[in-house]
Specification:
The protein is of the alpha+beta class. Helix 1 packs antiparallel against helix 2. It is built from three helices and five strands; from the N terminus they run E-E-E-E-H-H-H-E. A hairpin with a 2-residue loop joins strand 2 and strand 3. Strands 2-3-4 form a three-stranded antiparallel beta sheet. Strands 1-5 form a two-stranded antiparallel ribbon.
């Protein structure tokens, strides 16, 4: 399943992650490096399961938490209405 930012939401990389700006209401979200990796995977068309595998390749020290982190981020982005399938 591919995901996209909703119209009016932009992303900018930072030195240690990314920032999302919702131009519709002025809200923004800061993502750490892990969150930025996951979001980029999802926006590149990778399913959440592949985002977990990518996360594990980059950060192999937390194999038991990777899937939970991806699920939590995806849920938060959906709840904030900044990402859609």
């Amino acid at each position: 399943m591919a995901f996209a930012l909703v119209p009016g939401v932009s992303i900018a990389d930072t030195g240690n992650g990314a920032v999302l700006l919702d131009e519709r209401n002025g809200r923004y979200w800061m993502l750490n490096s892990t969150g930025a990796v996951v979001l980029r995977c999802l926006l590149d068309g990778e399913p959440p399961e592949e985002a977990v595998r990518t996360l594990l390749r980059r950060f192999p020290d937390a194999p038991d938490r990777a899937a939970a982190h991806v699920d939590a981020l995806l849920d938060a982005l959906r709840t904030a209405q900044v990402i859609v399938p």
